[in-house]
Amino acid sequence: GAVVSQHPSRVICKSGTSVKIECRSLDFQATTMFWYRQFPKKSLMLMATSNEGSKATYEQGVEKDKFLINHASLTLSTLTVTSAHPEDSSFYICSARRPGAKNIQYFGAGTRLSVL
Amino acid sequence: GQQVMQIPQYQHVQEGEDFTTYCNSSTTLSNIQWYKQRPGGHPVFLIQLVKSGEVKKQKRLTFQFGEAKKNSSLHITATQTTDVGTYFCAGGNDMRFGAGTRLTVKP
Predict the structure, then answer these.
(1) Which of B43, B48, B96 sits opposite A107 (nearest CB)?
(2) Which residue, B19, B97, B13, is CA-closest to A93?
(3) pLDDT tens across B56-93, in order?
(4) Which of A41, A51, A103, A111 to mutate to test the interface with B (most CBs of B within 10 A)?
(5) Cα B38 to the chain's mean position, in Å?
(6) Which residue of A has its CA nearest to B97?
(7) Cross-sheet strand order for the sheet of B32-37
Protein backbone atom coordinates (compact mmCIF):
# COMPACT_ATOMS: atom_id res chain seq x y z
CA GLY A 1 0.00 0.00 0.00
CA ALA A 2 0.88 3.66 -0.17
CA VAL A 3 3.37 4.87 2.38
CA VAL A 4 3.71 8.29 3.88
CA SER A 5 6.75 8.99 5.98
CA GLN A 6 6.81 11.66 8.65
CA HIS A 7 9.86 12.89 10.49
CA PRO A 8 10.71 13.39 13.27
CA SER A 9 8.45 11.16 15.30
CA ARG A 10 9.11 13.10 18.44
CA VAL A 11 10.69 16.43 19.23
CA ILE A 12 11.27 18.29 22.45
CA CYS A 13 12.27 21.91 22.16
CA LYS A 14 12.61 25.05 24.19
CA SER A 15 10.03 27.77 24.04
CA GLY A 16 10.81 30.27 21.29
CA THR A 17 12.53 27.89 18.93
CA SER A 18 11.18 26.74 15.58
CA VAL A 19 10.53 23.15 14.67
CA LYS A 20 10.30 21.69 11.18
CA ILE A 21 8.30 18.54 10.46
CA GLU A 22 8.66 16.69 7.17
CA CYS A 23 6.07 14.63 5.38
CA ARG A 24 7.06 12.50 2.40
CA SER A 25 5.07 10.33 0.08
CA LEU A 26 7.38 7.42 -0.61
CA ASP A 27 5.81 5.59 -3.51
CA PHE A 28 3.54 8.10 -5.16
CA GLN A 29 3.39 11.75 -6.09
CA ALA A 30 1.13 13.88 -3.98
CA THR A 31 0.08 17.25 -5.33
CA THR A 32 -1.88 17.77 -2.15
CA MET A 33 -1.02 16.90 1.42
CA PHE A 34 -2.87 17.63 4.61
CA TRP A 35 -1.71 18.65 8.05
CA TYR A 36 -3.65 17.79 11.17
CA ARG A 37 -3.28 18.49 14.82
CA GLN A 38 -4.56 16.14 17.47
CA PHE A 39 -4.90 16.77 21.17
CA PRO A 40 -4.95 13.84 23.60
CA LYS A 41 -8.07 11.73 23.22
CA LYS A 42 -9.48 14.15 20.70
CA SER A 43 -10.25 14.06 17.02
CA LEU A 44 -8.05 15.13 14.15
CA MET A 45 -8.27 18.82 13.47
CA LEU A 46 -7.44 19.83 9.93
CA MET A 47 -4.98 22.68 10.00
CA ALA A 48 -4.17 23.25 6.37
CA THR A 49 -4.04 21.80 2.91
CA SER A 50 -0.60 21.85 1.37
CA ASN A 51 -0.53 22.40 -2.37
CA GLU A 52 2.55 21.62 -4.44
CA GLY A 53 3.94 24.75 -6.05
CA SER A 54 1.46 27.13 -4.49
CA LYS A 55 0.39 28.55 -1.16
CA ALA A 56 -1.19 26.37 1.44
CA THR A 57 -4.85 26.73 2.29
CA TYR A 58 -5.34 27.25 5.99
CA GLU A 59 -8.39 26.41 8.03
CA GLN A 60 -10.16 29.13 9.92
CA GLY A 61 -8.41 29.97 13.16
CA VAL A 62 -5.03 28.55 12.15
CA GLU A 63 -2.28 31.16 12.12
CA LYS A 64 -0.45 31.18 8.80
CA ASP A 65 2.61 32.90 10.22
CA LYS A 66 2.75 30.47 13.09
CA PHE A 67 2.47 27.30 11.08
CA LEU A 68 4.47 27.69 7.90
CA ILE A 69 3.82 25.13 5.20
CA ASN A 70 6.00 24.50 2.21
CA HIS A 71 5.25 21.98 -0.51
CA ALA A 72 8.26 22.34 -2.76
CA SER A 73 8.05 19.00 -4.52
CA LEU A 74 5.52 16.34 -5.38
CA THR A 75 6.74 14.12 -2.58
CA LEU A 76 7.56 16.51 0.24
CA SER A 77 5.62 18.91 2.39
CA THR A 78 7.01 20.57 5.50
CA LEU A 79 5.32 22.17 8.46
CA THR A 80 7.35 24.61 10.51
CA VAL A 81 6.06 25.63 13.91
CA THR A 82 7.65 29.01 14.41
CA SER A 83 8.54 30.42 17.82
CA ALA A 84 6.97 27.45 19.51
CA HIS A 85 5.31 27.84 22.88
CA PRO A 86 4.03 25.25 25.35
CA GLU A 87 0.49 25.59 24.00
CA ASP A 88 1.78 24.37 20.64
CA SER A 89 2.60 21.03 22.20
CA SER A 90 0.52 18.47 20.38
CA PHE A 91 0.50 15.53 18.00
CA TYR A 92 0.89 16.67 14.40
CA ILE A 93 -0.02 14.27 11.60
CA CYS A 94 0.26 14.64 7.86
CA SER A 95 -1.59 12.74 5.18
CA ALA A 96 -1.65 12.44 1.43
CA ARG A 97 -4.06 11.12 -1.14
CA ARG A 98 -2.75 8.70 -3.68
CA PRO A 99 -3.65 9.63 -7.28
CA GLY A 100 -6.52 7.48 -8.47
CA ALA A 101 -7.46 6.43 -4.95
CA LYS A 102 -10.08 9.15 -4.69
CA ASN A 103 -10.49 10.37 -1.13
CA ILE A 104 -8.53 7.70 0.67
CA GLN A 105 -5.93 9.26 2.91
CA TYR A 106 -2.62 7.72 3.87
CA PHE A 107 -1.24 9.07 7.11
CA GLY A 108 2.24 9.59 8.38
CA ALA A 109 3.12 8.19 11.78
CA GLY A 110 2.78 11.59 13.37
CA THR A 111 5.11 13.91 15.28
CA ARG A 112 4.72 14.45 18.97
CA LEU A 113 5.88 17.96 19.79
CA SER A 114 6.65 18.96 23.34
CA VAL A 115 7.59 22.57 23.97
CA LEU A 116 9.20 23.25 27.32
CA GLY B 1 -17.39 22.79 4.70
CA GLN B 2 -19.48 19.76 5.39
CA GLN B 3 -18.82 17.86 8.53
CA VAL B 4 -19.88 14.50 9.76
CA MET B 5 -21.16 13.89 13.25
CA GLN B 6 -20.15 10.71 14.97
CA ILE B 7 -21.67 8.90 17.95
CA PRO B 8 -21.07 7.66 20.51
CA GLN B 9 -17.94 9.45 21.61
CA TYR B 10 -16.90 6.60 23.87
CA GLN B 11 -17.85 2.97 24.13
CA HIS B 12 -16.62 0.47 26.67
CA VAL B 13 -17.53 -3.15 26.10
CA GLN B 14 -16.78 -6.53 27.52
CA GLU B 15 -14.75 -8.72 25.21
CA GLY B 16 -17.14 -10.70 23.06
CA GLU B 17 -19.82 -8.04 22.99
CA ASP B 18 -20.77 -6.24 19.79
CA PHE B 19 -19.99 -2.60 19.07
CA THR B 20 -21.46 -0.06 16.68
CA THR B 21 -20.48 3.49 15.82
CA TYR B 22 -22.55 5.83 13.69
CA CYS B 23 -21.65 8.64 11.36
CA ASN B 24 -24.22 11.20 10.22
CA SER B 25 -24.17 14.06 7.77
CA SER B 26 -26.71 16.78 7.06
CA THR B 27 -25.82 16.63 3.38
CA THR B 28 -25.55 13.82 0.90
CA LEU B 29 -22.08 12.35 0.75
CA SER B 30 -20.42 11.15 -2.43
CA ASN B 31 -18.61 8.55 -0.38
CA ILE B 32 -17.48 7.85 3.15
CA GLN B 33 -14.29 6.46 4.58
CA TRP B 34 -13.58 4.77 7.88
CA TYR B 35 -10.26 4.85 9.70
CA LYS B 36 -8.92 3.25 12.85
CA GLN B 37 -6.36 4.82 15.14
CA ARG B 38 -4.76 2.61 17.74
CA PRO B 39 -3.67 4.26 21.00
CA GLY B 40 -0.44 6.13 20.33
CA GLY B 41 -0.67 5.44 16.61
CA HIS B 42 -1.87 7.16 13.48
CA PRO B 43 -5.11 6.70 11.55
CA VAL B 44 -5.16 3.78 9.19
CA PHE B 45 -7.61 3.50 6.33
CA LEU B 46 -10.15 0.71 6.74
CA ILE B 47 -12.66 1.07 3.94
CA GLN B 48 -14.47 3.38 1.58
CA LEU B 49 -18.17 3.14 0.76
CA VAL B 50 -19.54 4.74 -2.37
CA LYS B 51 -22.90 3.27 -3.33
CA SER B 52 -26.25 3.94 -1.70
CA GLY B 53 -27.14 1.12 0.68
CA GLU B 54 -23.72 -0.45 0.27
CA VAL B 55 -22.63 -3.03 2.82
CA LYS B 56 -19.08 -4.28 3.07
CA LYS B 57 -17.55 -6.76 5.45
CA GLN B 58 -14.04 -7.24 6.72
CA LYS B 59 -14.01 -10.30 8.93
CA ARG B 60 -15.87 -9.20 12.08
CA LEU B 61 -16.35 -5.64 10.83
CA THR B 62 -19.45 -4.66 8.86
CA PHE B 63 -19.67 -1.27 7.21
CA GLN B 64 -22.91 0.19 5.91
CA PHE B 65 -23.75 3.26 3.85
CA GLY B 66 -27.29 4.57 4.17
CA GLU B 67 -29.76 4.62 1.31
CA ALA B 68 -29.78 8.42 1.33
CA LYS B 69 -25.97 8.49 1.57
CA LYS B 70 -26.17 10.68 4.65
CA ASN B 71 -25.22 8.16 7.27
CA SER B 72 -22.96 5.24 7.80
CA SER B 73 -22.23 2.70 10.47
CA LEU B 74 -19.43 0.42 11.53
CA HIS B 75 -20.39 -2.69 13.45
CA ILE B 76 -17.94 -5.03 15.11
CA THR B 77 -19.17 -8.47 16.06
CA ALA B 78 -17.73 -10.17 19.13
CA THR B 79 -15.14 -7.55 19.99
CA GLN B 80 -11.60 -8.53 20.85
CA THR B 81 -8.93 -6.60 22.72
CA THR B 82 -7.22 -5.97 19.40
CA ASP B 83 -10.22 -3.85 18.36
CA VAL B 84 -9.28 -1.19 20.90
CA GLY B 85 -8.78 2.22 19.34
CA THR B 86 -10.60 5.20 17.96
CA TYR B 87 -12.71 4.81 14.86
CA PHE B 88 -13.14 7.85 12.64
CA CYS B 89 -15.30 8.54 9.64
CA ALA B 90 -14.67 11.13 6.95
CA GLY B 91 -17.16 12.05 4.28
CA GLY B 92 -16.87 12.96 0.62
CA ASN B 93 -14.15 15.27 -0.50
CA ASP B 94 -13.91 16.87 2.91
CA MET B 95 -10.73 16.11 4.73
CA ARG B 96 -12.38 16.83 8.05
CA PHE B 97 -13.05 13.93 10.33
CA GLY B 98 -15.85 13.11 12.69
CA ALA B 99 -15.10 13.33 16.40
CA GLY B 100 -14.37 9.62 16.50
CA THR B 101 -15.59 6.85 18.74
CA ARG B 102 -13.11 5.56 21.25
CA LEU B 103 -13.57 1.87 21.91
CA THR B 104 -12.17 0.15 24.95
CA VAL B 105 -12.54 -3.58 25.47
CA LYS B 106 -12.39 -5.27 28.83
CA PRO B 107 -10.86 -8.75 28.65
Answers:
(1) B43
(2) B97
(3) 999 999 999 999 999 999 999 999 999 999 999 998 77
(4) A103
(5) 13
(6) A44
(7) B10-14, B101-106, B85-91, B32-37, B43-49
